[in-house]
Structures are given as C-alpha cells and as structure tokens.
Write a structure and sequence with these properties.
81 residues, mainly alpha, 4 helices, elongated
C-alpha cells in the first residue's frame, strides 16, 4: 500500500511566516495609536527599527524579515490581486 506524497514548499511557508509577522507588527502599531502603514513604510525605506514599536515584541519580529524578501512578496501580492 502506497501513501500519497506530501508536497512541501519552503517558499510558501516563508510567505506565511512573513504575513504572520507583518500582521502582528501592524496590530501592535495600531494598538499603540500609530498609523501602521506609514510606520511600516518608514521601516522598509530606512531599515530603522525605531519606526516599529516594541509593543508585543513587534520590533524584534520585523527584524527577522529580510527587506528584499518583504518587498518582493508585497509587490507580488499587489500585482496578483
């Protein structure tokens, strides 16, 4: 009896992880009263972590994401939707 082969994609898992981190950072910024879009854009453009609050560990989380990877995913999502 043969079991079906399960497909595994590191790229899909990485995109899910980045989306989770970005959502968490967005929520933390909103909770602290910041405009999340402006703050995240400021971080992406400058790579200055002080654009991101430390609330809910958001600053540490965003630093786990490679900016080039993040930009690639954001552009891909924007153009595909």
């Amino acid at each position: 009896m043969h079991e079906p082969t399960i497909s595994f994609s590191i790229h899909e898992d990485k995109e899910k992880e980045i989306k989770h981190i970005l959502t968490t950072v967005y929520d933390a910024l909103r909770q602290k009263g910041y405009n999340p879009i402006n703050q995240i854009v400021g971080y992406i453009l400058s790579e200055d972590p002080t654009y991101i609050t430390t609330h809910n560990n958001a600053r540490s989380l965003i630093r786990k994401i490679d900016r080039d990877e993040l930009l690639q995913i954001l552009v891909k999502a924007y153009l595909n939707d």
